[in-house]
Write a structure and sequence with these properties.
The chain is built from 2 helices and 4 strands, in the order βαβββα. The chain is an alpha+beta fold.
Length: 80
Amino acid sequence: TPMSLSVLGCVVNGPGEARETDIGLTGGGNGKHMVYLSGMKDHHIEDGAMLDHIVSLVEKKAAEIEDAMSDAGQATEAAE
């Protein structure tokens, strides 16, 4: 399932990269990192939960994309 993902530890370049992706994670201080969804700041995540959280976000986004692709295919078939 095509999607874009960025994970950058840099608080300088990370936000710019994250704004260009479906899911983005930027490094942060004090063990907190900013999560971007569809190019927009969404929430913070702590170090310990970061990996599982990103995997969960990717799986959710993949399901959304696959559902949209399936719906589009059904709409095309119905139109024919």
